[in-house]
Structures are given as C-alpha cells and as structure tokens.
Design a protein that fits this description.
By secondary structure, the chain is mainly alpha-helical. It has 5 helices and no strands. Helix 2 crosses helix 3 and helix 2 packs parallel to helix 5. The N and C termini lie far apart (79 Å).
Length: 108
Amino acid sequence: MVSTAAVKRALSALASRTDTATRPAVAVIDEADAARADLRRAAEFVDADGLDRLDEAIAAAEHAGNEGAAKRGREARAAFRRFRAVAADSDLGGGGDCGGDDGDERSK
C-alpha cells in the first residue's frame, strides 16, 4: 500500500511541475484565440477575467521570446476589442451591422 507521505510528495511534485507541454501563457492565448470563433465561448472567456489573463499571457510570451504566441494573443485581444466596440454601439442604438435583415415585414 502507498503511504500518505508518498502521495503527498507525488502531488506536490505534480503541482510544481514547470515542464508541461504547453506553457500557461500559451494556453491562455490558445483559449482566447479559440473563443473568437464562438460568441458564447467569447463571452465566457471575458466573464472569466480572460482579457486580464490574456494581457498577462501576451507579456509572458513576449518575455519568453515566443513572438508567434504573442502575435496571436495581440490579434485575439484586438478581436475582443472589436467585439466590445460593436456591442457598445449596439447598446447605444447604433447601426452596428450584424448581417441580419433589419426590415420588419409586419410594418410594410
């Protein structure tokens, strides 16, 4: 039988691992990039403090010299800013075009 101390050591080693296949910053960037394709997923990302985490992930990727990940992160951040601008325009009754037909057949 495995001792409690051995289990604690193993769990501690797993918790402190830094050699994972995907670095945390890249994982956040991957999450943001994937969320751009689905409105619900994008909203969930933003609600989970995703934009703050994305900013931190971009900085970490730049610091690590991972320019490819940093670039994808900046592109995702720009997309989320565009989403926010369209939503704000829509909230103010602006003419944000979402591709739908604004004509109401009943009023014709």
